[in-house]
Amino acid sequence: MIKTQLSDPELLRYSRQILLPEWDMDAQLKLANARVLMIGAGGLGNPGAQILVRAGLGFLRLVDFDTIEESNLQRQFLFQSSDVGLLKVEVAIRELQKINPWTQLEAINLKVDLTSLPELLADIDLVLDGSDNFATRDLINQACVEANVPFLSAAAIGLEGQIAFFRPAQGCYRCLFGNGLNDDTRQCAESGVLASTTAVIASLQAHHALLYLGLDQVPLANRLLLWNGTTMQQRILKFAKDNNCPICKSSGG
Ligand SMILES: [Zn+2]
């Protein structure tokens, strides 16, 4: 059911956003009707989901297959010491629901693959990826192209991170990175990650999601943002659709 107005408590809660000249009642209502699929409830998913839910997202489907470990607590904001051993999605949804009773939340304990993704994507406006490896991002990309759903990808490791926004008709993750499945196999478990790195990148990803969902703005369309937490430099590189891309060449021309 499409929301056409917000209750008084909701208006009060989101008042600091509605006040903004860049973000009005119309944007807040669009966000209240938006449906997001987030894959990964780890270092990126924790802060990212929390920002979107606090901001007033209407529906969040959160997918992960992991349980909470002691080593997650350094950067995964929604989890406490007493949650170690429990399922990430269940604890995340429990905490997110306490934060915002108006967001509809769905927890799915699953390792995504090409069979499960179409159903997960069926009623979704935007996908946020917070998984921790190239192979999963490549699968999500394929499914998003197939379903014609925009894909906001993010990755963080060490003191570095990146985000990119893909609209299927204008190029995809594979156009940008090629079939580099073995290029960067670093993962936080082996290489380490600073607590602040995932929070910075997840915040940038959530920020871009809000621009897209509320305002229909896509400043990172066909761009890759690279953030270096050692030099504090940010670079934005442009990329074009690869007309020979095996994943998206037949979508949208
Ligand atoms: Zn492509």
TrEMBL record:
Transmembrane segments: none annotated. One of its GO terms (cellular component) is cytosol. Pfam families: ThiF. One of its GO terms (molecular function) is sulfotransferase activity. Residues 14-246 form the THIF-type NAD/FAD binding fold domain. Belongs to the HesA/MoeB/ThiF family. This is HesA/MoeB/ThiF family protein.
